[in-house]
Design brief:
The protein is an all-alpha fold and 132 residues long. It has helices spanning 7-26, 40-59, 63-87, 95-109, 113-124. It is elongated and about 45 Å long. The N and C termini lie close together (10 Å).
Length: 132
């Protein structure tokens, strides 16, 4: 991991984001207003997984760790699409959603400004570091 003062906080936040993604993807979908944008849900998938990938980019310093995080997120995105078809009655699997998830992960892993942003925020959080 990168040398952040509050590594445990950021790692825990990332894990919580992943857990929230799992819950949201397996619960009944909320009503969404029709915005008139074709395939708007694909943009949501890209954005969500881009955030997860960018957080991984900001947390992990080595290529091996970053690749492991990226592969894990891609497998998660594909696995959740399969789970939607197998474990729910209110969701349906969509291969294009899995593609959008993967694209989001890849874009997030390339988000090098995320490293600087997290370091900047980390340096400005008061108090003693917890669990470095």
């Amino acid at each position: 991991m990168r040398p952040l003062r509050h590594r445990s906080l950021w790692a825990g936040t990332w894990v919580a984001m992943i857990a929230a993604t799992v819950v949201v993807c397996l619960m009944p979908p909320p009503p969404v207003p029709d915005l008139g944008i074709d395939q708007f849900d694909k943009l949501q998938h890209i954005a969500g997984y881009l955030v997860l990938g960018a957080m991984a980019r900001a947390l992990f310093a080595t290529r091996v760790a970053l690749a492991g995080a990226g592969i894990t997120l891609v497998v998660l995105g594909i696995g959740l699409e399969i789970a939607q078809g197998q474990l729910t009655v209110t969701r349906a699997p969509d291969a294009w959603d899995a593609v959008a998830n993967t694209l989001g992960v890849l874009l997030g892993l390339m988000a090098t400004p995320a490293v600087r942003v997290l370091a900047w925020v980390d340096a400005r959080i008061g108090g003693a570091p917890r669990g470095t």
